Here is the input.
Amino acid sequence: MSNRSLARFAVLVVLFMGSASLSGQATAPALARNVTTAGPNRPAEVPEGYVITPSGYFHPSCVRMIEEGETLLADGRVEHPDGTVGANVPVCSYPHYTPTGLLVPADGRKASGAEVDGWLEYVSATTTISYGEIAATWVVPPAPTTLDGQTLFLFPGFEDSNDVLSIVQPVLQWYPPGPWAVASWNCCIQGVEWESNPVKVNPGDTILGTVTSACKAGVDDCANWTVVSEDETTGKKTKLNKSPAKGQVWNWGFGAVLEVYGVEQCGDFPGNESVEFTVELYDQNLNVISNPDWIGTPAATGISPDCNYGLDVTATQETIEY
Here is the structure.
């Protein structure tokens, strides 16, 4: 996760075994249903029973679902389609861990040692003010040819490079034993990872992922953003509507990211050789940036398995190879 993860997460409450994991649990939003429990190969520091998310390892009570038509508010409460608002704010009382097993703040983006866990390869760009939107399309790859309990994430997204507390991202995700699905994520209000209701997708389907300002053009620190994960082939979509940004300025755009957990052999990756993202990045006035100066960050050297990792970066197409 490079140096930006030193400020990525808010300070978390110390774990008290046996205590309630969330305030107002009786009326809290539903727990996420599709996440996978980390297996015996998880980092030793990660407690048993934690689950894998695009932001690392979380206690399962701290991964919450946003249903269709619901809106996540800035204080962590949920507004329902009928306009009513939940009385209590879900607050995570458990620590969470980076992909390498460290309590935050810590370096969790890069793979550690000989393991492939976390952000493996990615393409990013920065601006001095704020971006207004990112829109990426890519094709769902074939399923992996081998199954070792691995988890795979492919996505674009936004962060604040000066104060990295959260990330918004439309995600194509593989939880064992499959199939592929898409969902929209926002991490981490009150230490909670928020996920929209996942939609199953098929290899060969075209995915459109967008993160869009809900403010008028020119606003530098928009408080609300809409995150949409859509299967353009079937027309099905899942979104976070006007999701809060907690004072973040989205000046760090990610055109393509491959994040993995539990990969033991090259067959654990999708059953092809690469995924190509076609990306449009917009400035805060919602004008397309013709050349965002994308920078590719390749896989670290010395990791195992040693597959055909690589990046092909242009102004509009970002290809991740494995």
Q: What stands out?
A: Confidence is low (pLDDT under 50) at residues 1-27, 105-115. The chain has one domain: 3-321. The radius of gyration is 18 Å.
